[in-house]
Amino acid sequence: MAPTNYSVYSIPIYFLMNFIPHTYSTLIVSNGSVKNWDNANPKSTAVREKFQKRVSAATFTRWERARAAHNNGIENFPLLIAAVILGNMARIDAGTLNWTFGTFVALRAIFIMAYIGISDRRLSYFRTVVFNISVLQCLWILFKAGNVYASQ
User: Fold this and answer.
1) Other Cβ atoms closer than 10 A to 121
2) Whose CB among 10, 90, 116, 135 lies 3.0–4.6 Å from 145's, allowing a Cys bridge?
3) pLDDT tens digits for 91-132?
4) Residue 106 to residue 91: CA distance in whole angstroms
């Protein structure tokens, strides 16, 4: 019996997972208080300058890394969607899709933690390695799907 295909679930899981660094970044610069957050214009340079003055340099750079982790996740979301859809349309076996996208989501969770937690420049290359391996998961499925379509 073929395994159940759970690959489509990686899309909402990944989307929601990328709001963890967003929420975390908001909490650390607002000290957990809605009064300290400008929801009307949260991306303005004035807000950024206000945060930089309000928190320590270490907290501010952690905030920047959390924002960058969130943005990176959103920027890579279309790649995941394309790989899941094309992999399923090409009828790549469910076991391969489940393993690949489960690995992708796990690697991206590690990436988020590394992005936020690692401030040392040398150690930050770990994040780069994890990022590249996660992207290769999607590219591998896209190439497998491409091979299926090219052979038809």
Assistant:
1) 7
2) 90
3) 999 999 999 999 999 999 999 999 999 999 999 999 999 999
4) 23
Side chain identity at residue 77, one-letter code? F
- Provide the CA 129 distance to its chain's centre, in angstroms: 14
Length of the chain: 152
Q: First vs last Cα of the chain: how many Å apart?
A: 26
- How many other C-beta atoms are found inside a 10 Å radius of the C-beta of residue 71? 13
Which tokens in the block code for residue 49? Answer: 């300058």
Write down the pTM of the prediction: 0.91
Is the four-CA dihedral 42, 47, 48, 51 of positive or negative sign?
negative
The b-or-e profile of 142-152 (16+ CB within 10 A means b, else e) is bebbeeeeeee
Compute the distance between CA of residue 145 and CA of residue 152 in angstroms, rounded to an integer: 11
Say how far apart CA 41 and CA 38 lie, in whole Å: 6
DSSP for 1-67? Answer: -PPP--GGGHHHHHHHHTHHHHHHHHHHHHTT-GGG--SSSTT-HHHHHHHHHHS-HHHHHHHHHHH
